[in-house]
Specification:
The complex is a heterodimer of chains A (about 400) and B (about 240). Chain A has about 400 residues and is mainly α. Chain A is built from 15 helices and no strands. The longest helix of chain A has about 45 residues. The two termini of chain A are about 35 Å apart. In chain B, strand 2 and strand 3 form a beta hairpin. In chain B, about 20% of the residues lie in helices and about 20% in strands. Chain B has a single domain, classed as Alpha-Beta Plaits (2-Layer Sandwich). The chains are: A mainly alpha (about 400), B alpha+beta (about 240). Chains A and B meet through helix 6 and helix 7 of A and helix 3 and helix 4 of B.
């Protein structure tokens, strides 16, 4: 099925897109070589803000990866037939995101050539060790599942039984990757912004809003450019998932404010004050946070009423708003805001530098490239099965008449 | 230079340190402790400077800082200076989170970093509630200081050669180690030796007769952020 999708079906537009992504990845890779040569000093990170955009993006994309479960779980456990066409799209989105997560970790490391130490000296007391384990496992699970399901479909048979077992394993596994990622932050003394048990549930809720929102956008893109229709019903089911998850996420963001400002404990208020209002003239995050507020309100206003949720145009706007608001909340302010307030209550600001941004663009390009290649295969397989089932149906009707 | 493994270093190290400072009893492990008398600290930053000189730390890496906090309103303003080395916690959050066990407690109470194992993920920096750890971003003072790169401090007793060399701890996390290489030679940490106000004391908490043991029992004694449950090994006197 690979050679058919990638070689025989000639599509100039698609290969131009791939070429464009390759150029971007090359730029990112070049910047990474520069960073390897000069050290992490080319980034905007400092002694106090020792994790920057890389780890923020990593956290965000773990969420996108975990969200595949929002298709797999309804389809395989609750028999939601509408998702049958797009489950595999969710799984390949997970594969691309996990690969991006791994790249974000590698580029963030000061000694990337020692990455095998993670496996040479396994350390069960470190959440980061567990994160590496569950992410690797999740990647393998999704590659196996996605590929086998797709291959079975292209041959017109049911996937082998052992794939079903892997699918059931992958459901709690998806929850685990984001929970463990939350535990990276949630157990650190002296980081008050992170020292709350709400992080894991908030991460999961926001992941289940962001991922499906991205999937809806991908479905619309595939419909426009690849002639692949996911089906109105499937998209509406996803939109409902986005609506509930987004509402729960925003609820969890708001309750943090109550705890901080009703208790009036300075350390608890500090990060929120810094992020949303600025402290002692440090207000680099304030515009971003208000964009986050506006986008998330806009998303909820468009998602909750049935009329706008069922309209394709407003749904696209709402999904983009969900994606970018969560990108700010989780990919930007969560990690950097938590670190910008130092353990002794001082503020250190962080501004990303050009090499950092180019590397991030490069990783995005590689992720999009992987996803595009997968989707090309998916779309060609689906088109073929669509044609055969249509032929089959028309034959049936002929025979009946 | 011939290669020495970490195991060999520590096997060779401990007896010498004991002989040098514990006063004869070779079997006993010292529990290195630092006492800082805040009433005697004048906030001159000599400890910070001498630490940088002793450990030849690059820009952005400071093992010891003096935190200042202003209290009160004009004209009644008071500045409180708090020198902050690594607390060498007995329950170190940094060692708990390290994914490769590159940071660990040594038997003598010092929290060590294995520069040759650290992967530079900086998780320990985020975990430290005292901000005591810095990341070596690879910067250099060579432009301002001639010969800065010629040699590096023999931290943990390991000769690390030139700053440009393979054994430089660039891209790894670094922190105060109570000047372990000086302890080996029977000397006090640089900050203790150079303190102008004699505000710092250093010694073995296992020795009931030592100055630090006596000061540890003082009603003025407290730890930084005791509520974190980290059990720091640096004791402050109010």
């Amino acid at each position: 099925m690979l050679e058919k999708a990638l070689i025989k079906e000639n599509n100039k537009k698609f290969w131009n897109w791939i070429l464009f992504l390759l150029v971007l990845s090359a730029v990112g890779f070049g910047s990474y070589l520069w960073q390897l040569n000069q050290g992490l000093t080319v980034t905007g990170m400092s002694r106090d803000v020792s994790w920057g955009l890389y780890i923020g993006q990593f956290t965000f994309f773990v969420g996108v990866a975990a969200s595949a479960v929002m298709l797999v779980l309804p389809y395989y456990l609750h028999n939601v037939k509408e998702f049958g066409r797009i489950t595999v799209i969710g799984e390949f989105l997970a594969v691309a995101s996990v690969l991006m997560c791994m790249m974000f970790i590698i580029v963030d490391m000061g000694m990337p050539m020692r990455v095998v130490n993670m496996f040479l000296y396994p350390t069960p007391n470190s959440p980061m060790f567990w994160d590496a384990m569950v992410l690797t496992g999740y990647l393998l699970l999704n590659i196996f599942i996605g590929w086998n399901v797709l291959e079975a479909e292209s041959k017109g048979v049911h996937p082998p039984k052992w794939v079903k077992v892997l699918i059931y394993i992958s459901i709690p596994w998806a929850v685990s990757i984001h929970t463990v990622t939350a535990f990276l932050y949630a157990g650190l003394p002296g980081r008050h912004y992170w020292l709350t048990a709400l992080i894991a549930p908030k991460f999961l809720a926001s992941a289940f809003a962001t991922g499906p929102a991205l999937l809806i956008l991908i479905c619309f893109i595939l419909k426009k450019f690849a002639n692949f229709d996911a089906g109105k019903k499937a998209i509406q089911k996803l939109a409902l998932i986005v609506t509930y998850s987004m509402s729960i996420t925003i609820f969890m963001v708001v309750v943090e404010f109550f705890t901080a400002f009703f208790s009036q404990v300075p350390a608890h208020m500090h990060a929120l004050q810094y992020l949303f209002a600025g402290v002692h003239g440090h207000n680099g995050f304030v515009p971003f946070m208000w964009v986050f507020v506006i986008l998330s309100v806009l998303a909820l206003v468009l998602l909750i009423p049935r009329k706008t949720r069922e309209n394709d145009k407003t749904l696209i706007i709402a999904c983009a708003a969900v994606f970018f608001s969560m990108m700010i909340e989780k990919g930007l302010s969560f990690v950097i805001g938590g670190l910008a307030v130092t353990p002794f209550g001082r503020i250190t600001e962080y501004t990303p530098r050009l090499p950092e941004i180019l590397i991030i663009i490069g990783i995005w390009a590689i992720g999009t490239l992987i996803a595009s290649l997968f989707y090309k295969v998916v779309v060609s397989v689906k088109r073929e099965t669509d044609v055969t089932s249509k032929n089959f149906k028309s034959q049936e009707t002929l025979e009946h008449s | 230079m011939e290669k020495i493994t970490r195991r060999e270093i520590f096997k060779g190290l401990f007896p010498r340190v004991e002989v040098a400072l514990a006063g004869g009893e070779e079997t006993r492990q010292p529990r290195w402790t630092m006492v800082i008398d805040l009433a005697k600290c004048i906030g001159c930053d000599t400890c910070t400077v001498s630490c940088k000189a002793e450990n030849r730390t690059p820009p952005g890496v400071t093992y010891n800082v003096v935190l200042t906090e202003e209290k009160g309103n004009l004209p009644n303003v008071m500045v409180i200076n708090t020198p902050r080395p690594c607390m060498q916690c007995d329950r170190p959050p940094c060692a708990q989170v390290c994914p490769v066990r590159a940071t660990y407690k040594m038997a003598n109470g010092i929290t060590a970093i294995d520069y040759d194992r650290c992967i530079g993920c900086r998780y320990c920096i985020t975990a430290c509630p005292y901000g005591a750890r810095s990341f070596d971003f690879g910067d250099s003072y060579e432009a301002e200081m001639l010969g800065y790169e010629a040699i590096q401090a023999p931290e943990y007793g390991v000769q690390r050669g030139k700053r440009q060399g393979q054994k430089a701890p660039k891209g790894t996390t670094r922190k105060c180690h109570f000047c372990f290489h000086r302890l080996q030679r029977g000397e006090e940490p640089a900050c203790v030796e150079t303190c102008l106000g004699d505000a710092r004391y250093f010694g073995d908490l296992n020795d009931p007769g030592s100055v630090v043991s006596k000061l540890a029992k003082s009603p003025r004694a407290f730890h930084l952020k005791e509520e974190m449950g980290t059990h720091p090994r640096v004791i402050y006197l109010k």
